Amino acid sequence: MRIIIFTDSMGRARPDIDEIERTYYEDVYGYKLKKYFDKDEVELIYVESLDTQDAIHWSQRMVAFRRPDLVIFHIGINDCVPRLFSKGNCKIVFNPIFRKITKDFFIKLFSYFRYKITKVRPLVYVPKESFRNNLKEIMTEIKKYSPKCNFMAIGIAKSELLNKKSYGFNRNVEEYNKILKEIFGENFIDINRIFENNFLISDGLHLKKESHQVVFEVLVKKIEEVKQ
């Protein structure tokens, strides 16, 4: 069985942070699945800051062409998080030279007023209907090369920390998770039901080492059901 985990930074290791929160490659659920299903082919593919719009391009070459039997999606956060700017806009503010000249003044200013700005002007990179259509397009493309492929999706995690920084963060997460549930049905893994609280590192975004273990255990059960 060929299993592909297609994700953004949620599925990767974080060995470059404080030791108390650090995760090595051996700690992430993708690696654990690879070791557990050692007679199968398990591959972890992650693209930093991936949203479903960009995933349409990457999924064809990196996922569909491999003709998988099962694809596990762990994406969506980059689609739904409230943004200060539309996708691709205001590149000047993030330009390294401009940042150096201004000493990050504008980034700090926008960050300080982030909650108010996102409340007055709600923006996301990928609107809900596009999110739904993008996922269906990705799955359709994979089916062209692997007609019997199965699909799973890990839900988007709520975050009280990020909800305080961006207006409507958790509300957006709930709405986009509803779309994931609609598309994947019983193969949707609601991460917010698995954990009651305190399962993310201090950035309020990525999984703790212990949380990777729990997600791994849940996925093992789901995958074994598919294999039967």
Order of helices and strands: EHEHEHHHHHHEHHEHH
Proportion of beta-strand residues: 5-15%
Strand order of the largest sheet: 2-1-3-4-5
Helix segment tally: 12
Q: Give the structural class.
A: alpha/beta
Largest sheet: 5 strands, parallel
- The total strand number stands at 5
- Helical fraction equals 40-55%
The value of Rg in angstroms is: 18 Å
**In whole angstroms, how far apart are the ends?**
12 Å
* Uncertain regions spanning at least 5 consecutive residues: none
Q: Mean of the pLDDT scores?
A: 93
The global form is globular
Structure characterization notes:
Helix 1 packs across helix 12 (209-227), helix 2 runs parallel beside helix 8 (128-145) and helix 8 runs parallel beside helix 10. By secondary structure, the protein is α/β, with parallel strands linked by helices. It is 49% helix and 11% strand. It has helices spanning 29-36, 52-62, 77-80, 91-94, 96-102, 105-112, 114-120, 128-145, 160-165, 169-184, 191-194, 209-227; strands spanning 2-7, 41-46, 70-74, 150-154, 188-189. Strands 2-1-3-4-5 form a five-stranded parallel β-sheet.
